[in-house]
Specification:
Layout lengths: L4 E5 L6 H14 L8 E5 L5 H8 L4 E5 L16 H6 L4 E4 L2 H5 L5 H13 L3 E6 L3 H5 L3 H12 L11 E5 L13 H18 L2 H6 L2 E4 L4 H8 L6 E4 L6 H14 L3
Parallel strand pairs: 1-2, 1-8, 2-3, 3-4, 4-5, 5-6, 6-7, 7-8
Helix pairs in contact: 1-2, 1-11, 5-7, 7-8, 10-11
The structure holds phosphoenolpyruvate (PEP).
């Protein structure tokens, strides 16, 4: 059974005080005893340690929004996997469409980052998703196939329990436009078929696939109620504790474990 998972991607938002307040408000509502829905927050790097303090003793886990694949050394401005582990990160988001589109990250680079993160003991939220032009050209499945193949090249089946996939249609990220439940379910089912053919049916059945793209309290229940949608990666709505917690509660209400 796949446990639902809701992760907040704070992107380049908050300052120290707002980060600590937001994390504290979320932590207060998520008890340490294994919550029905797994919850993580991914603040900007400078605030990871402060947020770690704010969520201490709760069931909220800590994630980073990026990592570099090289060992610590002469890579000005980059952040090593070991450093993220050192400040208490359990998770790292990789392959986000903003990093692909704005920072020029390729599947090959993302794959190196996935491998390095796994070697360093982090769990990975690997984002994939098509642009609007690609969807309109009926290329959604081909794009997903190619991003999955490229980002997971050389990653073996044994590592897949440390990886969560996030299907994030680019046209739905930060736009207020959400994929319909049918569009989300169809893409998730396709990703699960891809996992079955690249790995095996057990891996396909066990791997969690989150939906991301304008998830809000009012659409979370129907999206997370889809059979192949195992949670949400939440951007904008994760910056308000009440909205983020409402999404977590929506996940709880449709969770079967
Ligand atoms: C995201 O950035 O991962 C995301 C899903 O953003 P939003 O919820 O704002 O669309």
């Amino acid at each position: 059974m796949r446990r639902k998972f809701v992760a907040g991607n704070w992107k380049m938002n908050t300052l120290r005080q707002t980060a600590v307040e937001l994390a504290g408000a979320i932590a207060k509502a998520i008890p340490a005893a294994v919550p029905k829905v797994q919850v993580a927050v991914c603040p900007p790097c400078p605030y990871l340690e402060a947020v770690k303090g704010a969520i201490a003793g709760s069931g909220v886990e800590l994630g980073a929004q990026n990592a570099y694949h090289e060992q610590p050394g002469a890579f000005t401005g980059e952040i090593a996997v070991a450093m993220l582990g050192d400040v208490g990160c359990a998770w790292v988001i990789l392959g986000h469409s903003e990093r692909r589109a704005i920072l020029g990250e390729t599947d090959e680079l993302i794959c190196r980052k996935v491998a390095a993160s796994l070697r360093g003991g982090l769990q990975v939220i690997l984002c994939v998703g098509e642009t609007l032009a690609q969807r309109q050209a009926n290329q959604t499945e081909a794009v997903l196939d190619s991003q999955m193949a490229g980002s997971l090249a050389g990653i073996d089946a044994a590592a897949m329990d440390k990886i969560v996939i996030a299907y994030e249609p680019v046209w739905a990220i930060g736009t207020g436009v959400t994929a319909t439940t049918e569009q989300a379910q169809s893409a998730h089912a396709h990703l699960r078929r891809w996992l079955a053919s690249r790995y095996n049916p057990q891996i396909a059945a066990a791997t969690r696939i989150l939906y991301g793209g304008s998830v809000k309290p009012d659409n979370a229940g129907s999206l997370l109620g889809q059979p192949d949608v195992d949670g949400a990666l939440v951007g904008g709505a994760s910056l308000k504790a009440a909205d983020f917690l409402a999404i977590v509660r929506a996940g709880e209400s449709v969770a079967s474990v």
